[in-house]
Amino acid sequence: MYINKEIEFKTLINEDQYHALIAEFGLDNNIFAQTNHYFDTDDLKLLNEQTVLRIRQKGSNYKLTKKTRAFVGADEAHILISKDKADEMLKNGFNADIIGLPYDVKKIAELTTYRTSTPYKDGTLFFDKSEYYGHVDYEIEYEVDNVAEGKKIFNDFLTSHNIEYKESIRKSKRAFDNRDNK
């Protein structure tokens, strides 16, 4: 298991802004799909604790991730898993002790993101198109190591591109909230 700190700033954008940014940064041929399969207990303990547990599938790679809110950003723990193990967990659920959560969990939602990224100043910009249960949305994420500097750079980026900040809730919550609208 490996652990890292995630500090990110994000905002929802519209489809035209998404395509304009992809063109501006020359990223048309650098978009890849990743599917997040989200897990929780029957009584949604993780959702209520603001913890995200997911298996992310990128190509033939699978990674189990636990994200917990921290004083700054989020703490993430990751375990690489095989396709067979991922398939078993997706089908049957699993005991999340393997990643430090004392719960039996099952799959509750999924979301596919078409993502591209580029280095930008002191961090990385991500441009995401996400599809889940008949919904499509677009988002910019800016991941950094320094909160204060990252926030300034992100806000300057939005201003210079005439993008109005729109709060975006976690992808896991968006997928969960819309899963019954298939």
Q: Could you write a compact summary of the structure shown?
A:
With 182 residues, this protein is an alpha+beta fold. It contains five helices and nine strands.
Explain how this protein is built.
The protein is an alpha+beta fold and 182 residues long. It has a single domain (2-181), classed as Beta Barrel (Hypothetical Protein Pfu-838710-001), CATH 2.40.320.10. Helix content is 25%, strand content 47%. The protein contains five helices and nine strands. The protein has helices at residues 15-24, 45-48, 83-92, 147-160, 171-178, and strands at 2-13, 32-40, 51-58, 61-69, 74-81, 94-95, 104-120, 123-132, 135-144. The protein has an eight-stranded antiparallel β-barrel with strand order 1-5-4-3-2-7-8-9, surrounded by four helices. The longest helix has 14 residues, at 147-160. The termini are far apart. The model has no long low-confidence stretch (mean pLDDT 93).
Number of helices: 5
Please state the second-level CATH architecture: Beta Barrel
Helix content: 25-40%
**Helix-strand category:** alpha+beta
Give the overall shape.
globular
Q: CATH homologous superfamily - what is it? A: Hypothetical Protein Pfu-838710-001
Total domain count: 1
Based on CA atoms alone, the radius of gyration comes out at 17 Å
What is the CATH class name? Mainly Beta
Strand share of the residues? over 45%
Number of beta-strand segments: 9
Q: What low-confidence regions span 5 or more consecutive residues with pLDDT below 50?
A: none
- End-to-end distance: 35 Å
Average pLDDT score: 93
User: Spatial order of the strands in the main sheet?
Assistant: 1-5-4-3-2-7-8-9
